[in-house]
What we know:
Structural class: alpha+beta
Number of helices: 5
Radius of gyration: 19 Å
Strand content: 25-35%
Number of domains: 2
Amino acid sequence: MRSVSRIGGVLMAAVLLAGCAKGQQAGGPSVESTASSGPAAVSHGGLVRDHVSFVDALRARGVTVAIAGTAAQPFLHGKGTQLRLSGAGLTAPAVVESYNYDQADLGTDPAQAVIDDTSQIGSDGSPKTSKITWVAPPHLYRSERLVVLYVGRDTTIEHLLADLIGPQFAGK
């Protein structure tokens, strides 16, 4: 009887883990959980976790994405890329900065590096140790290995980023 209980417990745990490993986003493609053994080189749907999946998600929404150059903020240590977004009902083209946190670039755990960097940013979007005079309100979003900075007033861009990445964690 005891072995039957153990087998039942193991089966229940396996079913629960399988349910957690695969999910279905409302109205979206199925999402698979991946181990943090390293970033995937290619993304074609699913959750936004890094720069590649961010660009894929934008394009899946019909947004035209063009690389506009490199980006650098002294308080963000990920590899920065400026992206020019247009189309898909956006009121005007906009530039966002996408910071990809990759273990190969940083030599450390990328998810922890995102946490470390973003914990140093105040609710106004400036580093806690200094103040930045932004040309427009900053909006910062983060995911597993990604930080996105949008400086502007276009609520369409703000809503798009929040839909793809989640609510902004800092900014105005």
